Amino acid sequence: MDSSSESPRKPTLPPGAKAPTMPPGAKAPTLPPGARPPAGPPKPGASGDGAGAVSRQDFASDQDVRWCPGCGDYAILATVQRLMPELGIPRENIVFISGIGCSSRFPYYMNTYGMHTIHGRAPTIATGLKASRPELDIWVVTGDGDGLSIGGNHMIHLMRRNVNLQVLLFNNQIYGLTKGQYSPTSEAGKITKSSPYGAIDHPFNPIALVLGADASFVGRSMDRDPKHMKEMLKRAHGHRGASFLEIYQNCNIFNDGAFFQYTEKDTKPERAIFIEHGKPLVYSGGTKGLRLEGFHLETVDLDGGAWSASDCLVYDETSYELASIVGRLFRRDDMPQPFGVFYAKERTTYEDALHAQIAEIRGKAGKGRLEDLLHAGDTWEVA
Amino acid sequence: MAEKTIERLSEATILFAGDSGDGMQLTGSQFTLATAFAMNDLATLPDFPAEIRAPAGTTYGVSGFQLHFGSVDIRTPGDEVDLLVAMNPAALKVNLSRVRKGGTVVVNVNAFERRDLDLAGLKVSPLEDGTLEGYHVIPVELTRLTREALAHTELNQKEIDRSKNMFALGLSLWLYSRPIEPAERWINKKFARKDSIREANLQLLRKGYHFGETTEQFAVRYEVSPAKLPPGKYRAIQGATALALGFVAASERSGLPLFYGSYPITPASDLLHSLSRYKQFGVMTFQAEDEIAAIGSTIGAAFGGSLAVTGTSGPGVALKTEAIGLALIMELPLVIVNLQRGGPSTGLPTKTEQSDLLQAMYGRNGDAPIPVVAASTPGDCFEAAYEASRLAVKYMTPVMLLVDGYLANGSEPWPIPDTATLPDFPVSFTTKPNHEQDGAQVFLPYLRDPETLARPWATPGTAGLEHRIGGIEKQEGTGNVSYDPVNHERMTRLRAEKVDRIARELPPLPVYGEESGDILLVGWGSTRGSIEAAVDRLRARGRRVGAVHLRHLNPLPADLGDVLSRFGAVVVPELNNGQLVRILRDRFVLPIRPFNLVQGRPFRAGELVEHVEGILDGKAG
Q: Which of A88, B4, B153, B499 would staple B221 via disulfide (CB 3.0–4.6 Å)?
């Protein structure tokens, strides 16, 4: 399998894959939602045997992509489609499963097996499929409303069970498909159609939520950094267990610029910190860092001579304690927002335990015979 | 030792009643087992409160187990009780009305102290105030005898008192000349590693048995001859167990791995318990975080090619509704078992009812028909589970299997089926493109079988057939998202037509009793025994009455209309406020009469007889 990251024929589109063409805070495109989107990549021929699936095009379905032009979802789709050939998984063994919402249209655009299901329930359907077909490579695509509001219960149970699959949570901090109500990740005070005087809800920090549910892989990336996103997707895929990847995704129609402070080049160095295992937590082009003072993080200036990178916290993604501290850095004006792998530590997966138990019982009792089962217990003959 | 008179009975009904903590369910099930070994036909009705341990001695903590057995065909748990074993005043108060006049009442007299009477809300002891006049009362010092028997053991007072049901069991086994060995075997196995408890239980069981022999209180001992059941090998089976076996059989015969996703709920949990033990059959059981996750997991498993089943009760079906619609539009095979209980809402969790039929038929958004299949006896749950599984896979649709609490908990002797006689269960996964388009071979996930209208089942892992399905309306053939209005109407009609076509393969509807006559009783589900017992009695009185019992409620059998037309009047007895009757009136536009009981218990055959005679005599007059 070709592992080079670039496919020979680079598609001219989609738009989101490129650096944003608009400055931070720019006005949303005037095209209405549902307007004809830009043409997709060339349609693949029906490849039939599945063996030749080595390029990005092989993973694009023949369906027109129907997200709003300029939506961050395009970049995520493009990045996922680009990553697929690198993973070396036969296309027929890949399944994308989603719930309801803008992000959940994702499976229709992947030329793999897929299910676009009902609101919030993708984790349950994915669990049943993975439990019964452990060899399949399963991706759950969800959003902040789908995955954390109506499907919040399933999300935490998926994490605690540690079903070996990837959850991509596209967080745009708004309800898009229902046209602009606040979501469980919207900031308090947010003015939306359903909160004209400001949202009074306290928002979730998805990273802290899934850490609390004992997720074994927790990461965060952003739509406008395809390189980082691809790396995170790859890490999530490589992790054996339930991988949770939050992806900040701009909704240019209802919540434009929600993450621009972290994603746009003017502010990104100051406002975002990229955490890496075994490396000190530095940002702002190496001029600033985070050091641990007791249980708290504090920002230190690395240019002033008082502190150096060696004083900064060296990140350990296998430490639940560090993940809890760094994962709780959330929307702080005085601190950067962390991106990267917060936590990665493998433990037994649900489907492994399920099938190990079946194998163990079969090893002891032998493969069951229906006749024996029907005739089990106290029986008697009537002549 | 007094010489006892032996009286031969053709049938008898016994009811064990006591506190929830008195072990009445266990006593009843052990008596059932012994009765099965005595080769009687039987039917049981466990009846217990929803509370696990309601305050001891109160009427709401009373738990009962009724068993009807005999040498004749036994179809119901018995209209009237011949022997009531009452462990305390509350049990007596709650159940005395079920005992026939002249029936026997065994009471634990040690439990009739002032405090016991107060707990039961009784001012005067029913042993003294004439309440029991007309009954044959046998006072037994159950508590004292138990304590005396176990005085020398290392068991504490609480453990000793808790064992007194074994004394009652032994006594009852003696009274009806049942073998004691099955209960002994059970005790030996159950308490294999608890020597003192095992010995105490065995001792009490035998003590009770011998007490009957030695006491002067029993002048008569009963014998019930073996029933003339068709020859073969039998076992006593509960409905919940039969369901589990039916699904395992369907899995084995179809070659599909069985996946069962469920969330604990009364009275469906026993199905989860049973299936979770069958790991040697490769059965995958998933205890989900909620009802929705339970069905969600089965939808995923169905997409992957498993025989996917979820079980619940009415409130759980309500939660699963949206997901059933998803399975329906995605056209994936799935069985949803509804072990019905009294409703609405939490209703009567431990009582039986048939009030979820309209929910099964219509309880989804959109035009969303699914096949509905019902089991009619505990043993029949096996065949019903098999049939529901077979239809789901053959027609690629979710199927609702209606069972109820009475069937799930009740037992009967079950002729163990020969697996070779089970209907064929062929499964063919699609592995190649199924259509030619512009010279290319393509796979169309919604290209239907011309006969059944089922769509192909192509599972992940099949190269070249990658496809996406979902809850948005499908374009016919391609399965692509389609908002086209004409396509939507066509798909709506195709989905309905697919379910309707099942009627083509249904066998002729057997009529019980008269093939034509004055009154036809139309039933479904657990009322079968009561209805057919009533038909027998009515015909014995010269009434021209017949009955049909519907296994398939959607679609209805094609010949049902013809059967209805052969009778002067049609009555639909149901344990609800009138549901099948509405479906039949809608379908046949006939003046079909309801007969409803909504008391959380099965019909007594006598109630049906009385009702039908009332109609017939009203007509005659």
A: B4
A363 touches chain B (CB under 8 A): no
CATH class of B5-224: alpha beta
Give the pLDDT band of residue A33 (cuts 50, 70, 90). Answer: very low
B268: three-class secondary structure by DSSP: coil
For residues B216 and A122, give the distance between their C-alpha atoms in angstroms, rounded to a whole number.
70
Mean pLDDT of chain B: 95
Question: Taking CB atoms and an 8 Å cutoff, what residues of chain B touch A63?
Answer: 480-481
Q: What is the CA radius of gyration of chain B?
A: 27
Classify residue B171 by burial, with Cβ atoms within 10 Å: 0-12, 13-18, 19+.
buried
Task: Please give the class, per CATH, of domain B512-620.
Answer: alpha beta
Give the span between the Cα atoms of B324 and B372, in whole angstroms: 13
Residue ranges per domain, chain A?
15-20+29-43+50-264
- For residue B621, pLDDT beyond 80: no
Which residues is B398 bridged to in the sheet?
B334
User: What gap in Å lies between CA A118 and CA B299, rounded to an integer?
Assistant: 11
**Within chain A, what is the greatest distance between any pair of CA atoms?**
99
Residues 77-106 of A with CB under 8 A from B: 90-97, 100
* Amino acid identity for residue A352 in this structure: D
Domain ranges for chain B, please list them: 5-224, 236-421, 435-504, 512-620
What ipTM score was computed for the predicted complex, to two decimals?
Answer: 0.91
Interface contact B468-A113, CB threshold 8 A: yes
B5-224 and B512-620 in the same fold: no
Q: pLDDT tens digits, residue range B105-130?
A: 999 999 999 999 999 999 999 999 99
Q: Give how far A120 is from chain B: nearest CA, Å.
A: 10
The secondary structure of residue B206, as a DSSP letter, is H
Q: Name the CATH superfamily, with its identifier, for domain A15-20+29-43+50-264.
A: Thiamin diphosphate (ThDP)-binding fold, Pyr/PP domains (3.40.50.970)
> How is chain B split among helix, strand and coil, in percent rounded to 5?
40, 25, 35
Please tell me the predicted confidence (pLDDT) of residue A10.
38
Q: Chain A contacts of B302, Cβ < 8 Å?
A: 128
Q: Which CATH class is domain B236-421?
A: alpha beta
Q: How many CA atoms lie within 13 A of B317 on its CB side?
A: 32
* pLDDT reading at A35 higher than 60: no
B370: Cβ–Cβ under 8 A, 6 or more apart, which residues? Answer: B324, B328, B360, B364, B397, B398, B399, B400, B499, B554
Q: What pLDDT, on a 0 to 100 scale, did the predictor assign at position A53?
A: 46
CA A24 – CA A228 distance, rounded (Å): 20
Residue-wise pLDDT tens digits, B194-235: 999 999 999 999 999 999 989 888 888 999 999 998 999 999
- Cβ of A378 within 8 Å of Cβ of B286? The answer is no
**Interface contact flag, B466 A113, Cβ < 8 Å:** yes
Q: Under DSSP, is residue B189 helix (H, G, I), strand (E, B) or coil? A: helix
